[in-house]
What does this fold into?
Amino acid sequence: MRSAITLIFILTCPTIFGQKITLRDQNTGDLIDGVAFMFQPLNGAYSGQMVSNTLGVVELKAVDFPIVIKTQHVGYQSYSDTLKTSTDYLIHLVPKKVQLNDFIVTGQFNPQSAEQSVFTVKVIEREEIKARGAVNLSEALSNTLNIRASQDLAIGSSGISMQGISGQNVKILLDGVPLVNRNGNGNAADLSQINLNNIERIEIVEGPMAVNYGANALAGVINLISYKDAQNTTEISVGIQEETVGSEFGPDEGKHIQSIDVRQQIAKQWFGQIGVLHNDFMGFQGNQTGRPKEWNPKEQYQGNALLRFSPENHSIYYRLDYLDETINDLGKSNNNYLPSGENQPFAIDEQYLTQRAIHHIQAEGKLPFLSRYNAFASYSDFERIKRKVSKNLVTGEEQLTTADGDQDVSTYNVWEFGGAGYLSISDKIDLQTGYNLSFEKVGGGRIQEGEQEINDLAIYSSLEWKVGENILVRPGLRLASNSAFGTQLIPSAQIKKSFEGNADLRLSYGRGYRAPSVRELYFEFVDSNHRIFGNENLTPEFSHHLSSNFTKPYEVGNAKSEAAFNLFYNTIDDQIGIAQSASDATATTYVNIDKYKTLGLGVNQKMEWEKLTTSFGISYVGRYNRLDENQQNDLNKFFYTPELNGNVQYDWAAIGTKINVFYKYTGALRNYIFSENAAGEQEVTIGEVEGYHWLDLTLSKTFFTHFDMVLGVRNLLDIQRINNSGVSGGTHSGGASVPVSYGRSYFIKLNYNLKLK
Amino acid sequence: MTNSKYTLKLILALVAIGFLNACDSEDDQPKVDPAVSSAIIDAEVGGTDQPNQVFIDFSSKTQTVVNRASWDLGFYAGSEFRVILNNPASMLTQAIDKTDLTEVTAEDTVGMGAQMDIDAIFGSLFGAPAEWLPLAQTWMDQPDGSLEGTAIAEVSATAEQNKVYIINRGKNADGSGRGWMKARFLREGSGYKMQYAEINSATFSEIQINKDSNYNFNYVNFNQGLVDVEPEKTKWDICFTIFTNLLPIDATSKIPYAYKDFVIQNRANVEIAEVAVSDYAYEDFTYTNSTDLSYSSDLATIGSEWRIVAQPGSDQETGVNPDIFYVVKDSDNNYYKLKFTRMLDPISGERGYPQIQYDLLVQ
It folds into this structure.
C-alpha cells in the first residue's frame, strides 16, 4: 500500500542501545550510505539530523517515539513517514525519479509527504521560490496552473482566481491561520502584500477545505509554511536583489530589495529567528507622462520574529509578523488660472498606508490521552489609511481633499483560536477533532455605523480509515455557528486508492461556503447616482466540489516520469450578486441570486533525466456563463480557457550553475457582451480578454561557499497589457486593456549565507 | 578568500544603503503653463451635488447661475407648441388615457413609483429583466434636444386630444424626491395654458404661459408659477448642468441616467466643433483653422467628452480630457476657441468646480 516505498517492520526486540534504521535500495537491495536522515519527535522535542554509515545504518538513541522522519540523498527519492513504535526499521529507498516530496501539513493529521496525503497537494518549495527570484506570493504563483492573476493599478494590488472562481473564495493561510487583509479574513487577499522571505514552502490545495479551515475556501487554500527551525546553531543570511522595472532602473527607478535573516539555536530547548525585508518598488512610468506613473511606487517593510521553546513532549512558539506598506499615487498636473491669468497648477495625490501586525502563539505535542495535539491563538491587526491631498504645484502646499470617500481608514481586527487533537483509535483508524473560534471586527468609511463585528464558532472532526490494504477513506464534518447568518453543517469525504506500480487515485467531495463579507452585509453608499446598501439577511454561498486525481509513475529508458490526470467540478448556489431591493425600488442591495459553475480537466507530466528536470501541464477550465435567463438557452453554458505551463531545470554541473525556465500560457477568457453592430443595433457577441505567454529565465549559482547568486529575466516576452474586447458599453466600463505586467525586467540577486555548527 | 570578503562587504554596504534610503523621491519639477491673456471663467456649478445650471455667455464674459430644482417645465417660445421637462432634475412623465384632471386619482399611477423613477430604473438592471424597461426612454425628452423627441406630445389645438400627464418631478440636488404631479397642456391664444394639481387633488389650478420669443423657452415651477431660468437666447452659449442622458445597457434598452459635469449648448444658432490636440495646439489655433472644422448643433456636442472620470480598477484619473478643445460659433458669428482647464476644485478636490479658458478668434 505504500505509494513509492516499501517498509518492513523487523520483528525483533528493541535493543538497549536504541533503534537501528537500515536503509537499502529498493531495486538492488544494496545498503545505502550517505543518506541524510532527519527526525522530529511528534511531542515537539528537539529534532535531529544524521547521516547513514557504510552499512546503511542510522542509530537513534534516547529518541521519544513516535517520530516523523525524512531522508534525503542525491540518488534516491526523499522518504518521509511517521514511525510510531520504538523499534528497528528497514527502509527501502526508491532510486530518484521525480522531484523531492517534502513534508506537507495542510489538512494533514501528521506531517507527511504529499503523495501519502489523501488530498491532492501542490507544493512550491523554497528552492523554486529562490530560483524564480520571487519576493512575494504573486511572483511565486506566476506560472501555476488553474491560478489566474489580476492586477489593480488604481490601488496597486494583485489578486488571483483559482479553478475559475474569484479570489474571494481563495483562502490564504500563514501556518494554518487566515492572513488578514483589507477585504477579508484570509480571502480576497492582495498577494503583493505577502512577502516570502521567511517562508519555507507554499502548499496549495484545490477544493474547499471547509471542514478544517471554515468559510471562504470554496476554490481552495494556499497555506504558507514559515521556518521554525534551523539545521545549524547559527544561520545568517543577508540578501540583496536589484531589479529593473521594464527598462527603467536607477536610484529612483527600478526595484530594490534588501533582507537580513538570523536563525539561532539559543539553548538546548530554545530557538529564535528574526528577519527584516525592505522591498522598494519605485513604480513604472510607462506610457504616462509627468507626475503620474502607470504602476504606482510601493515601498514595503516587513519584519518577523519567532521564538520557540521545546520542553519534553511539547513545542511552543510565538511568532510576530509585521508589514508596513506605502503606495504613492501621484496625480497629473491640472491647470488652474487665477483671476490675474497666472497659472497655479495643482494635482490630486493619493496615498495608501497599510500596517499589518500578526501575533501568533502555537503549541503542539503529545498529552497522556492524545497521540498529538495542537492549539493556537492569534491576533491580527490590519489598518489601511487612504489619504488624498491636493497639492499646489507652484507653492508646494498640500491640503486634505474633502470629497466623499477621499479620506478613509479601513481596519480589520481578528482574534482566532483553534486547536485539534489526534487519536489513533486502532491501527486502521485515526481521528481528528478540533475547534475554531474567530472574532472579526471591521471598520471603515462605507460600513454602517463605521464598525461591525462577526463571530464564528466551530467544531469539526474527521477520521482517516484504512480500508483493506489499498484504500484510505476520510470523512469529515464541521458544525459552525456564525453571529451573522446562523448555523452550518459542512460535510466532506475523500478516498485514496493505491494501485500496483505506485499509482494513486484520489476522489474528493467537499461542501464549501463563503460567508457574506462585511461589505455585503453592512455596506452603505449613497450619492446622486447610487443608492447601494448591504443586506444583513444574506445567507452564505454554498458550493459542491467534486474532484479526482490519478497519478502514475513510470519510466522511459533512464528517465523517471510521473503523469497525473485531474478533473474538477464546482457548483455554487446562492451566489451573492447586486440586485434591486425588494423593499425599495430605488435602492440596490446584495442578494443571494446567482449561480456559478466551473469545470476543469488537466494533465501534468513530470520527468527527470540525468541533469534535466522538467514538468509540463495542461489544463482546461470552463466557467459558467450567465447572461440573462431569457437568452441563456440559446448560448453556450460554459466558456473554456486553456492553460499550459512548463518548468525546466538543467543542472550544469561543469560550471556549477542551474538553468531554470518557467513558462505559462494563460488562455483567452471569453464572455458574452452587448455591442453595437454596423447597423447601429445592439447585439450579443463574444468578447474576450486576450491570452498571453509568460516566460521567466534564471541562472542560479553558488560561489565562494557562502554566496548564492541568481541572475534572471522576468517576463522575457515583454507582456504589458492585453486587449479586452469583453466590455459592454456604459459609464462603468473598465477600459479596453488589462494590465499584466510592466514588461520585461532583469534582476540579480545576491545572498550571503553563514552557517555555524 | 579576499574576493569573498569584498563580495560580503559589498552586499552589506548595499543592504545598509537600501534600508536607510527610505526617503520619498522628490516631486519632479512640474512643467507649468505660463500665464494667459485668455478669458477665464470659474463656473459656479456649486460643488459635489452640482445644484446649479450655469449659463455662460462668451462675448459678455458672464455666467447666469440657476438652481436646477427651481423649475419644472419649459414652454417652447418658437412657432411649435412643445413642452420640455426639467432634465437636470431627471423628471419623467407619461400620458394616461384621460383628459380630465379631476378624474385622475392615485389609482391611475399604480406601479409607476417602482418604474418611472431614475433610481428605480437603474435598480431594475440588477433584477430579472423588466419588461417595461424599453419604455423608460420614452418618459424623458430625447437628449439631442430635438423638439419632436419630447416626452410630452405636441400640444394640440384640439383640446380633447391633450391627455393628462403623470409627472415624477425628479430629484433635488441633495437627492430627495421632488414629488409627483398631474398636468394637462392646452393652447391658449398664441400661448399655452397648463392645468395642474397634486395626484389626489379633486380640483386643479391653471396657469397661462405666453410665448416670449426673446427666449428659447418660458419656464414654470408648479409651486411658484412663472420663473426665470435661462437668459435670453442670444445671451448665452454653453451651459454646465447635470444632464439626464440615455445610457445603452443592453441589446434592447437604453435607460435614462444622470450625468454630472455635462455641457450643453444653446439651440439658437450656436454651433460647436471638437478639435484634437494632435491636429492643432490650442495656443496656435487661429481663425483660419476654424473653417476646416465640422460644426454641430446637437445639444450635447460637448456633453461629457470634455472630462474623464476614474472608474474602479482603471488607472485613468478624474480630470479634464487633455486631448481635445472646442471651437464655438455664437449667434453673432463670433468664433471662440474653448478649453476646459480643470474639473475639480484645486483645494478640496471635489467635483463641481470647473474652469474654462477661451479666446476670440480674430477674423
